[in-house]
Amino acid sequence: MPGVLGSPTDPEFERALNFGPFTLDPARKRLMQGGDVVRLGSRALDLLVALVERAGDVVSHADLFAQVWPRTVVEESSLRVHMSALRKALGDGVDGRRYIASLPGRGYSFVMNVTQTQTSCVPPGAMTVAPMSPRLLPTRLTGIVGRDQELDVLSAKLERSRLVTIVSPGGMGKTTVALALAAAAVHRHADGACFVDLAPLDDASLVPHALAAAAGVAAPESDPLPLLDEALAARDLLIVLDNCEHLAAAAAALAERLLRVAPRVRILATSREPLEAETETIYRLDPLAVPPLETASSVEDALAFASLRLFVERAAASDNDFLLSPTNLAASIRICRHLDGMPLAIELAASRVGNLGIQALADRLDDVFRLLRRGRRTALPRHQTLQALLDWSHDLMEADTRAVLHRLSVFRSSFDLQAAAEVAGCERIPRRRVITCVLDLVSRSLVVLEPGGAARYRLLFVARLYAAERLAEDGDVQAVARRHALSMRDLLARANAELRNPDTPLALWRSVHAAAMPDVRAALDWTHGPGADPVLGAELVIESGRLQLEIGLNDEFLPRALAGLAALRSHADPNASLGLQLLTLLCMVSGQCLLDHIIPADTPAQLEDLAYRIGSPEQQRMALFALCVNAFGKGDYPTVVSRAARYAALPVDPLDPTHAAATMAGWRFEALGRHYLGQYEAAWKSCERVLEHAGPWRAGSYTQLPLPVSMGTLQARIRWMQGFADEALDRALELLRFCEAAHPFALSHTLSLALMPILLWRGDDAQALSFLVRLVDHELTHAQSFWMAWPHTYCKVLALRGHDVDALRARLGNTDRGNDMQTDMLSTLAPQFVGPAVLERVGSGTVGWCAPEVLRVVGERANDELQLLRAVALARSQGARAWELRAVTSLAAQWQDAGRRDPARALLQEALAGITEGGGTADLRRAAALLSACDTVN
């Protein structure tokens, strides 16, 4: 029985490698074009053999030197000279034909398609020709990228199991992996391996015929199975059954039969769904690894991900000038992520780099089917375009399964079976049938099961776009989108209900439900689009409010809340209860945003009126919370204190968890208001009360900050004001460590409102600059307007103090939107920032914490002793020894200049006596130097 061509037992044949008009005979070191020998030097010919045998791979300079000049030391220029001669002989670049791509710093790659044929090395007449020639394994024309681990696992599975099926969606590289695995395993089989491509077949009865032809068995057309059994019974052979999905039952039957009659035959199958054959081992081939969402720190780090390596290699073949660099890294990563690591899609995308450019390609991937329409002409028809690839799978499905696939395209992220049933179900396709269809789509690899604990599913990006186009053809978009919006509303309502359980971990809650935001956005967009439903839109905004604020999407949520309220009010029958809830959210979020959206000035008054006319006790508590947040965000501290006091007048229900949360909120806002009014003793007591009673209460409360953070920040600031500079810094640093595991905006809060100002008040500019870099990094990651403004504040201060912060400002860009809180803060950090706005706020009693320092700066500017005395007196009344020391130092300097040395000395000694720590701070050094000058006798 003849052996399979290409097996180790078949020495009578040699390989001929064909590309373009050329044929390369590696054994004879001969290159032919047509019937003529191409004249090439031996070194150039050796280079060609080295490159063609690794077609598609990047062959490094070191590998080429080792193969072509193994025992000779040569200059780099020699390689370039011989490569130039080789390219000239091939006509590389002539008529747009490319053979060899140069990858600067990495090596060369042979990029022309290569096929392999057999040539005889036996004298004529000495060769016995079999009745039928077995079919050789197809040759890989390009290198395989990023599948080493999969090949190791599959190799082990193939040793343990006689039937292994590689399952994945189309375009994931099943055939590529199977061929690489077969090539590596062929030495373990005396009769080699044969390849059977079932893709061209549309008749299940032809499957045995295809195997007979591939295995070199001359079997009768009527019934090939008996002769096939006899021929293969004694063979030690690896059979690759490729593209089984449309003939899965026939392939499974044939495989089971062969495994029974041929004990040394092993079968490696590829399919988009399991064969469901006896003893079958299934291996699901995952996409190539993609870089994380955040841009990799370097090109080298990014190239650790196989999808990016594949993209770079194929892009370099498309565009001779393409080189991955920090400039195009983000766009390249975005393409690979967008295409879910699908090798075929990545290769098609990379082939467009040469005529589109990397950035344009990244920006237009939503138009992926038109953009990636053209593939290799030599590929199978269904692999030439993504459209054809998905048409092949789509046409194999039943009508219900196709309809469910189309409807699932409305999901922008993962979904569970309940959501799938809610969205894809209808009178014709009941929910139980939807679940069956989803599981069928999973088996067909069009829907993938997400890794992790709970069963969640998603469509790959390319499959979702394809299904969305089909849904539009169905004319079912509006009905499905409405069911999707309803499903999202109900999902969010269930999520909000979870928070009524005080044992629900808030960080885990945020992490789990944040994954739904792409679908929440899509649903919100639909409710305000052509199929607008303002009532459903209002409900969706309300139910999503807690999630959006908890994950810091304040800036995104504010225009949503405004649009939702406007749409609801324009409705023929506006729902007053929904309006109350939207007003509550609008007041709350507008107090935590610095956007240019116009919020009507009477919005708080509208909320207050409506809440007390129609609101339930819980809604009244939520309204009061929103009003406090709104006033605090505007820097209106007297209003914060007065509204905080009103919590005590709310209806009492000890069994209502929202009442407990409201009580805590009242104490919290009282502490905040008292502190910013400069009433430190009262603020400290309120902080202690909050921290003493703080528990897991959070039902109905929208706060992004753990109470230990908001109260701890106040305590650190108060200790600074009271003259305990070291304790204040220690407290802020302790909070910073706590924030590492807390909400991301806890870190923003601690850095912006405690650590940075304390360091700058102390005069520790070096540490402040270090933490400013961290603050900028953090805010650029989370990008919320309220917190983005704070690093701008500290850049201004450090720039005035002579530090170079230009690079940090450039990174922040045009995100500086100041508010009254920052105006107050700046007035304590540099006298240049004390202007009319803060003077008005101090004069009206709206702010008190910075008032002594503002009065001091004004008195020092005007050389006004009375104003400085007012600053000293106010600081003492507040117990603010830090501000008292500054005011005393300014007053003492004025007295010393006026010759009043003794009163100046006494004033400084009294102030310094009240401060027991912080000897290294700038204020204490300044005061001590002035006291020393007062002691100096002229």
TrEMBL record:
Keyword Cell cycle tagged: no
Start-end of DNA-binding region: 14-112
Alphabetical list of SMART domains matching this protein: Trans_reg_C
Gene3D superfamilies hit by this protein: P-loop containing nucleotide triphosphate hydrolases (3.40.50.300), Winged helix-like DNA-binding domain superfamily/Winged helix DNA-binding domain (1.10.10.10)
Domain OmpR/PhoB-type: 14-112
Keywords: DNA-binding
Pfam assignment, any one: Trans_reg_C
Designated name of the protein: Helix-turn-helix transcriptional regulator
Organism: Pelomonas cellulosilytica
